[in-house]
Write a structure and sequence with these properties.
Layout (H helix, E strand, L loop, with lengths): L1 H18 L1 E2 L11 E8 L6 H7 L19 H17 L6 E7 L6 E9 L5 E10 L5 H9 L11 H17 L6 E9 L4 E9 L5 E8 L7 H5 L11 H13 L3 E8 L6 E10 L3 E10 L3 E10 L8 E8 L3 E11 L6 E13 L4 E14 L4 E15 L3 H7 L2 E3 L6 E3 L8 E14 L10 E11 L9 E13 L5 E13 L31 E2 L2 E2 L4 E12 L4 E13 L11 E12 L2 E10 L10 E6 L4
Length: 623
Amino acid sequence: MRRSAALVALLAALAPLCASAVQLEALDLARTWRLRALRFRGVSAVRRGDLRHAMSTKPRPWFAVWRARPLFDPVVFRTDLDRLRQFYRTRGYYHARVTYDLELPESGDALVAVVFIEEGPPVKVVSVDVTLGGAEPSLAERRLLLDHLPVAPGRVFTEEAYGRADTYLRAYYREHGYARVDVAKEAKVDVTHDQVRVAYRLESGPPCVFGETVITGTKDVDPAVPRREIAYAPGQPFKQSLLDRTRRDLVGLNLFRAVRIEEDKGSDPEVTVFIHVTEAPPREVRLGVGYDTEEQIRGLASWRHYDFLGGARQLGFTGRASFIHRTIAADFLQPHFPGHANRTRVLLAEQEEDEDTFTLDRSRVSPRLEWQATERINGYAFYRIEYDLLSGVDAPVRRAVEQCTVRPGNVNVVCGRPGAARDTGILSGLGFGADWNATDDLVDPSRGWVLGATVEPVGGFLGGDFNFVKLVGDGRFYQPLVAGFVSATRLRLGTAEPFGKHDEVPLFERFYAGGIDSVRGYGRRRIGPLVDDKPIGGRTVVEGSAELRHPITEKVGAAVFIDGGQLSGRSFDFPFGRLRYGAGLGLSYRSPVGPLRVDLGIPFQPPDGDQHWQVHVSLGSKF
């Protein structure tokens, strides 16, 4: 009896919910409906985020509580259901059934759309037939080519992989000199047995060479400027990568709004290339505002001429200001000097920096030579000569840097490095470095790595008042994981060694750790030795970070992180065993003015009197 009563009560409770679920035909179209939520049931083979992205019907983002709920359009929703069926079909699920319910509220106008999906079994590839006509690759090349095809027996058949294999075959031959290659593809789908047989027929055509290049569209820009960026020569074997490099270098001039590269449609082994450019204004003015919790509001104003005196020379003026840094700078860029793969830059800058420990006024002149060793590796060398004026250094800080002590029974102060914390001086130094970028995206990478290293000898035979050598190496590594997660790690090592017995690395050239770009959870420069609660830096630094990132929506992402870092007062003394750690959570948002990031960091061992948490807000990309 009790069991029957409970069943009746359960059915009575569910009855209103069932009655509120309707189809589009039963929806009162005389009313204005809004979408409260969009839910999916039965999804396992694909990501729900991809399904939401495929639909035009979208609810209000969870964080945008200030926005009105979007209007629900029945016509658009019905079209979205067809999109979902096609979405599954392109991914090999030909049997997928898509149904829905519209859950109406007891009061108000905000409904919930629930989409039910029965995915069914996928269609799988049972055979891949590739016929290579024309030039026959060697057995090893053929095996390499076929082993990397995106389509393979036993895999679920997707239209994306099917088309990508076509592109892969075409690209392989074009990179090896066959510009006239032709690829035909065919897929025979047997839905009854959930099988598909795939075939590709390829005709290589003759080995090709570059012929004449015709450039059109130049008006104010000297035609010699785009011609100088061509990465190949007439008679050179054809390679698709050389056309891609030419396009990239032309776009990099910032003189053209659009660059279109085409080839003649004939069958001759000599390929004529047509390059059409659309010029952009040569001058550019930028105004920008950024924010982070260390520098607070920072502003930028710049003017740049990308064709100063012709020849794609550049001249620019920049002003930056925040509560810590102020800079006025001018720079001149001469491309293709002294060699075609080089460019020379000259920088003049007036800088002011306000830190807790000191105030630095710096006047700098720095010529810089850059060269591109490969498509991903860049090298550079520079010379800097600057006048540095240090002020606001307290006596205890000065004594600590100069290693001063008071011997027992003696009132005299004895300094191991007298004069090391000088207030004023000329710094003269060279620098050599290289960067290797092997990521899949320069702005928001999810795979690959970035490596960099610099060495800077200062003083010695170069003259000046400071004598030391500084070495810095850093690496960032990105790896996609399961379920949309991405791991991002960072490691930075640096050390500096003074030359002479009484020399020391000056305060403004020492390493510091802690803060928004270092070990989050700690305040700016709050890791390492403190004198009167002021940081004095160190000669050696170790910093590292590890993040686990995951997108929440198309524009919002979340991360958990752990950072570690420490300083040493000695050269080449990397303090891996004494690291200070911080961990926390982060949220990022791709705003119209750039990526916005908020991090909550918790320090494991904060200095006495410091906060036990830090909130770091920044506008601009991080590692």
